[in-house]
Design goal:
Layout (H helix, E strand, L loop, with lengths): L2 H19 L32 E8 L6 E9 L2 E9 L6 E7 L36 E6 L6 E8 L15 E5 L16 E6 L1 E4 L10
Antiparallel strand pairs: 1-2, 1-8, 1-9, 2-3, 3-6, 4-5, 4-7, 7-8
């Protein structure tokens, strides 16, 4: 065999050997699918706390009636509870008591307090029967033998320091000379005004507080 042919065959053999020992390319593995992210439910917001607002009215005599009193207004279920005492009344006498539209007792006869508080534009009536009535209508109050009447009434629908139409802060409270007949429009034939006070806040909610749910 000639030397040239021997060199050629040896080169071919080496080339084939190199091809046989070359590593095959390794396929890349696909990344494992990510585990699904579990949805997180937002925590429920706490219920708004009920506003513990309250108010007070000091009633002073009109003219020479000698009638006065102290009334406290507190939040009650669905409205306002008014408690307190009216003093200087005739023993056994029955008198009308109303919330009036203005907290102004400057007039000697109390007329500066305006008419009954009536944002719902309802006819005057008896709150106790559940029929139509002014928001400011309160049941009659009767004095005991000592000339004092103990007031304890829940007035549904009224509000304290809410800023709404039924908010009683800044309104007037009037004691009338006679009983309310709950029929005569628009005042119940309750006679003149013998004591007047202004409802003022004692414990009001913060200005930026929202309404209670």
């Amino acid at each position: 065999m000639t030397p040239i042919r021997t060199v050629f065959l040896l080169g071919s053999a080496l080339a084939l050997s190199a091809c046989g020992t070359a590593e095959a390319p390794v396929a890349e593995e696909a990344p494992a699918p990510a585990a699904p992210v579990e949805a997180v439910e937002p925590a429920p917001a706490p219920a708004a706390a009920q506003l513990a607002a309250s108010a007070r009215a000091t009633l002073a005599p009109l003219g020479d009636s000698g009638v006065g009193g102290e009334l406290v207004f507190d939040i009650a279920d669905g409205g306002v509870r008014v408690t307190g005492t009216l003093a200087g009344l005739q023993p056994g006498a029955t008198h009308a008591l109303h919330v009036h539209e203005f907290g102004d007792c400057s007039a000697p006869d109390g007329t500066s307090a305006g008419g009954h508080f009536n944002p719902g534009q309802q006819p005057h009536g008896d709150r106790a029967t559940g029929g139509p009535h002014h928001a400011g209508d309160i049941p009659n109050q009767t004095a005991g033998d000592n000339g004092e009447a103990t007031v304890d009434q829940v007035l549904a629908g009224l509000e304290i320091a809410s800023g709404g139409a039924y908010d009683i802060v800044g309104k007037g409270v009037i004691v009338h000379a006679q009983a309310d007949d709950y029929t005569t429009q628009p005042t119940g034939n309750a006679g003149g005004r013998i004591a007047c006070g202004v409802i003022e806040p004692v414990n009001a909610p913060p200005a930026d507080a929202g309404p209670a749910e």
